[in-house]
Design a protein that fits this description.
Helix content is about 35%, strand content about 20%. It has six helices and seven strands, in the order ααβαββββαβαβα.
Amino acid sequence: MSSSNPVPLDALPEVFPPTLREVMLRPRWIALLALCLVVAGVFAWLGQWQLGRAIDTDPTPPGATEQVQPLDEVAAPGEYVAEPLVGQRVTVNGTWVPGDFIVVSSRFNDGVEGYWVTGQLRVTDDPGAQPTSVAVAIGWAATQDDALAAIDQLNQDAATPGAADIPLAITGRLISDEGPVLPPKTGDPLTLTRMSPAALLSRWHDIEGLDVYRAYVASEAPQGSLDPISSPAPAESSPVNWLNIFYAIEWAIFAGFAFYLWYRLARDAWERELEEFEEAEAAAS
């Protein structure tokens, strides 16, 4: 029987641990890198989209809101007003509907709290056209009694024979609906504290088949004993939307993070292999 001698340790081939580059070039990590490229591409596209929305290439000219335009050329019944047109000075012809003058409280005029008197203006149109109305803030009163007294006078004038045949020209600012709110828990449940055409519509008369503008007009010239409503020109908006630019930067960071995540995972796998290799060497020695 022949005996075999053990192979000397220095005769065994030397084994080296894998490098980080070798680990990254394995099919598994190349496939994961391709996935990260797809994710980063989506993030980059979203960032570019946000950046495109951040800069207004066709900004509204300065002072455009101060040029009086016909109401029907700025907005349409039932539609929301575009942001650049909020505060636009408009003109509209129509007649008041008697009995639809309503008080809205918590209205401030140059810092003084008071009341608005509002009315339903039936827009003058072709006789065969669908009836259309717009809510109008007619004027401001310091007390509720003054507002109610002005309503009495407005109702008398609107009910005068022949008043419906003489349209009025109302000029004012077109302002978005403030939205209705729940009435206060105490006090009159019919009290209105927000200028909302939707809330006013529920209390108007003769609304069968009526088209109504979502926005309302704050009249420049009050009627009767009411004071003018303080409605300054809207501030000029910047052509740059910094919030969208911030979002674009966030998407760029996310795209970079996708690559960093791939690198970190590959490096962690490489470090684990190094630890296992060192442990195996220690055990062998």
